[in-house]
Amino acid sequence: MSLLIPGPVTITKNVQEGLNANSLSHTGPQFTTIFQSALQNLKRVYNATQAEGNLPLIIAGSGTLGFDVAGTNFVNPGDNVLLVSTGFFSDEFGECLETYHGANLTVLKPDTVGGVVPLDEIATELRAANGKYRAIVVTHVDTSTAVLNDVGAIAAVTHRESPNTFVIVDAVCSLGCEELQFDKWQLDFVLSASQKAVGAPPGLALGMVSPRALDFALQKRPTGSFYASLKKWAPILQSYAGGQAKYFATQATQLVSSLDTALQELLQRESVTHHKELSEWFRSQITQQLHYKLVTTTSDGGAHIAHGLTALYVDDPAKAIQEINKTAGAIIAGGILPEIKDKYIRVGHMGASATRDTLQLVIEALAASQ
C-alpha cells in the first residue's frame, strides 16, 4: 500500500535502519557525533550556514511544538502579532499564540479559499502599524489548501516596512520540497517537522533561530514554558553542535539517527527540483486531462501552488478516497479546511513511495471515479 498523504511519508530503507539501531546513551560520544551531524546538516537544508549564530533546533515532539516554541520565546503577553492566514494550519498557529501565549492577533486572509494575501495588503498593514508588530507569522505551505506563500517576498516587505518585526514561518510542509533561504531572506524563526519532505519518521520538531531572535528569547521575562524554552534548549543544542554532550531532556536517539540519514539523503539530491517536476506533472494530468479543479487558485499562473501535495475538488470525496485505495493501492487524505471539508481531497507527493508510477495509478483511479 502506497502512503500518499501529506505526511507522514514512507521512509527509505536507510532511514528505517536508523530506527532499528540499539538505544545509545544520549550523552555518550557515539550519539553526540550523530546529533552534531544532524544539527550541521539541518543548517545546510535551511540554507542557514552563512550567518554567525543561527541556532538549529531538533527537539522531541511534533511540528506543532514549534507553535509553542514561537509563543514561548518570541512573543510577550499583549504583543501585537500579524498572522497571514492561508488555511487551517495558519489559524491553528494563530490560536496557539493568542489563546495560550496572550498575543494580540491581527489576521489577514485572502478573498477566496485557496488564494493568498496580496503583498501590497501586507505592506499597507505593516506601514500603518508603525512598528507595533512584534512578529509576522506566515505558513509557507498550508497543508489544508496546498497554498504556497512567497516567504522571500513577504520577508522583504516586512524588513522594509517594519524592520524590528520578527519574521516567523511555519515550514512543516515546505522544508525539503520548496525553496527556503533562511539567511538570504533574513528569517527569524522557521519551524518544521521530521515527517514530511524531510523524509524521516514523525516525532521530531525542527527549527532554525536567528541571532536577534535568540537574543530576545534569552532575555525574555517571563518565559511561560519549561520544555519549549530556549533558555533551556539553546545551551544544550549549542554544546552538541560543538561536539560536547549536555543534558536537559533525554534525546530521542533512534529518531535523531534516522533524521540525520534523511537529511544526508536530502542534501545528496536536488530535492526541491524533484518535487517541483513531480508535482507539476501530476497536476497537469489531473487538470488538463481529467479536468479536475484545484483548491489552490491558479490566477497567478500557479506561482502559489505547493509542490509537496495537491488539493483538488471532487464530487464525492469518500468515493474517490475509496476508489484510490482499492484500485491504486494508495492511501490519500480527505479535506481538513472547515469551509470546504467535504468537497475535496489531498494527495501527497513526498517520500519514498511518491513516484510517477504510484501517482499514475492515482490518476487512473481518479479517472475511474468520475
TrEMBL record:
Gene Ontology cellular component annotations, sorted alphabetically: peroxisome
Pfam families: Aminotran_5
Modified residues (N6-(pyridoxal phosphate)lysine): 196
Protein name from the UniProt record: alanine--glyoxylate transaminase
InterPro entries linked: Aminotrans_V_dom, PyrdxlP-dep_Trfase, PyrdxlP-dep_Trfase_major, PyrdxlP-dep_Trfase_small, SP_NH2Trfase/AEP_transaminase
Cofactor needs: pyridoxal 5'-phosphate
Family annotation (SUPFAM superfamilies): PLP-dependent transferases (SSF53383)
UniProt record, GO biological process: glycine biosynthetic process, by transamination of glyoxylate
Domain Aminotransferase class V: 20-296
Entry EC no(s): 2.6.1.44
Record carries keyword Chaperone: no
Family as reported in the entry's similarity comment: Belongs to the class-V pyridoxal-phosphate-dependent aminotransferase family.
Positions that bind substrate: 346
Enzyme class label: transferase
UniProt keyword Iron present: no
Gene Ontology molecular function terms on file: alanine-glyoxylate transaminase activity; L-serine-pyruvate transaminase activity
Keywords: Aminotransferase, Pyridoxal phosphate, Transferase
Highest taxon above the source species: Eukaryota
